[in-house]
Design a protein that fits this description.
globular; about 45% helix; two-stranded antiparallel sheet; disordered C terminus; 14 helices; TIM Barrel
């Protein structure tokens, strides 16, 4: 069965770039942000009712233009947990090249308890320099695409170390650690002196936290996750081979923001590496593909939905983000814009049969266990988004289930 994850972050509604300009900076427009927040309870309830597997938030900062406003990933997921009973709540994801890994471990373990195991956690490397460079400055991390540059390698090194620390905090409980980035406790080699609860910690805290000389020698991260050994881990990826192999070796779920060509090329490598490391995955299992569907009563209506809901962000955010799209996406007419969106392989529009056939063809190439859908709420109106999810769950997903019918695994064992 294909598991549907809906990626949510407010894209603050505007009638087009001109209104964004009139309301600049719309990202700080309280009325438009509140409008987006007001619709979330109904959307989350619909996810519960429709059987959506999960809903995820994303970490982005400084989006003054109103695109992908997601600065408070933990607040979003905690809020959604209280609105739902069945859908899983998570992130896609925390940008681990800039975040404090201990804070992430604590926050996500707490969410896992709030949801009683309806929690998953996603990690990303960070590619937006405006904010990644600011938040990562103390770690020496800068934004990068997967280009093999020295910045790319440094970013990846920090990312992998930070994720390793989260895993230690989740699974080891009490540990010490030292690297160029972090010392736990601090100072590490000398031990922390003067902890005012030292005698109490020695008697009631974790074994090994305090030594006999009254120095703190280890840290104990609390709480432990509700899920044993820890929540599912997703890794945001553009399907670079390094990320695919990294995820495979650890059993993490790579989430491909990529065309099916890249997904189908690297998907088998993921399965190979995962199984070399003791997992028993069949092709496509434990992998996710990200797509932006727009389903109308006619082909033209679906195309208009794509323009109204995704055209602005494609032209002014995704376009400039990727060097080979920069010149192509700026100043083009609607027909050309749709062609460019088509060329990415990420955006789909048309009738339900057209979109369904498109996905069937893709799932024949890589029968991914997960699909992450992005609807750009609240640029997509609330009621339209709910209607789109209903169409997908009832008229598209069943066809994909036939192509990705994996044996069900115990959630705690996955």
């Amino acid at each position: 069965m294909v598991k549907v994850v809906v990626q949510m972050y407010p894209v603050l509604r505007a009638d087009g770039p001109e209104e964004r300009k009139e309301l600049r900076p719309i990202g700080r427009n309280k009325e438009r942000f509140q409008e987006a927040m007001d619709g979330m309870p109904d959307i989350l309830q619909a996810m519960d009712d429709l059987g959506v597997w999960g809903v995820s938030s994303i970490e982005h900062h400084f989006h003054s233009e109103g695109y992908e406003v997601g600065p408070s990933i933990g607040m979003n997921t905690g809020y959604w947990a209280g609105l739902t009973k069945k859908v899983r709540i998570g992130s896609l994801g925390y940008v681990m090249s800039v975040d404090d890994p201990i804070r992430v471990a604590e926050e996500t373990a707490t969410l896992d308890h709030i949801t009683k195991g309806r929690c998953f956690v996603g990690f990303a490397r960070g590619y937006q320099s405006r904010w990644t460079n600011v938040l990562g400055q103390k770690l020496g991390s800068v934004a990068t695409l997967s280009d093999g540059s020295s910045d790319d390698e440094h970013n990846r090194k920090i990312f992998e170390e930070q994720v390793e620390i989260v895993m230690k905090a989740w699974t080891e409980g009490t540990f010490d650690y030292k690297s160029d980035l972090w010392e736990y406790p601090y100072p590490h080699d000398e031990g922390l002196e003067g902890w005012f609860m030292g005698d109490v910690t020695r008697q009631l805290g974790a074994p090994g936290e305090m030594d006999e000389e009254g120095k703190l020698r280890k840290i104990c991260v609390v709480p432990a996750p509700y899920t044993e050994p820890h929540p599912k881990v997703f890794i945001a990826s553009n399907a670079s081979i390094e990320t695919v192999e990294y995820a495979g070796a650890r059993g993490f779920i790579p989430t491909y923001f990529s065309s099916i060509g890249r997904c189908a090329t690297y998907g088998p490598r993921y399965t190979e590496v995962a199984n070399e490391n003791g997992f028993n995955f069949v092709p496509g299992q434990n992998q996710a593909i990200v797509r932006w569907p727009h389903i109308g009563a006619s082909h033209d209506e679906g195309a208009q939905m794509a323009l109204d809901w995704s055209g602005d962000i494609f032209q002014n955010f995704y376009g400039p983000l990727f060097p080979d799209w920069t010149s192509k996406a700026q100043g083009v007419d609607s027909k050309r814009l749709l062609e460019l969106m088509d060329d990415t392989g990420l955006f789909q529009y048309g009738t339900v049969s057209e979109v369904r056939d498109f996905y069937i063809d893709q799932w024949k190439q890589l029968p991914a266990e997960y699909i992450t859908l992005i609807y750009h709420y609240a640029q997509t109106p609330k009621d339209e988004m709910i209607a789109q999810m209903k169409i997908f769950m009832e008229e598209v997903k069943p066809a994909l289930d036939e192509l990705a019918d994996f044996p069900e695994m115990d959630e705690a064992a996955e």
